[in-house]
Amino acid sequence: MQFNAVVATNTGAITLWESMGFDIVGTVPDAFRHSTEGPTAIHIMYRGL
Questions:
Q1: CA-to-CA distance for 48 and 29, rounded, in angstroms?
Q2: Is 18 helix (H, G, I), strand (E, B) or coil?
Q3: How many structural domains does the chain have?
Q4: Residue 20 parent element (H or E)
Q5: 21's torsion region: left (phi>0), alpha (psi -120 to 50) or beta?
Q6: DSSP calls for 31-47
Q7: Is-above-0.90 flag for pTM?
């Protein structure tokens, strides 16, 4: 299995990981401090190998 954490505002990266078969399995609120948007959630993405 493979896990990846992606900042929720990074829609390009989310689209890319989903195109490679990853699914969002959870969200951690305020886990990343964005330089302009402040506290931002991250998505935990998973793909079985």
A1: 24
A2: helix
A3: 1
A4: none
A5: left
A6: EEEETTTEEEEEEEEEE
A7: no
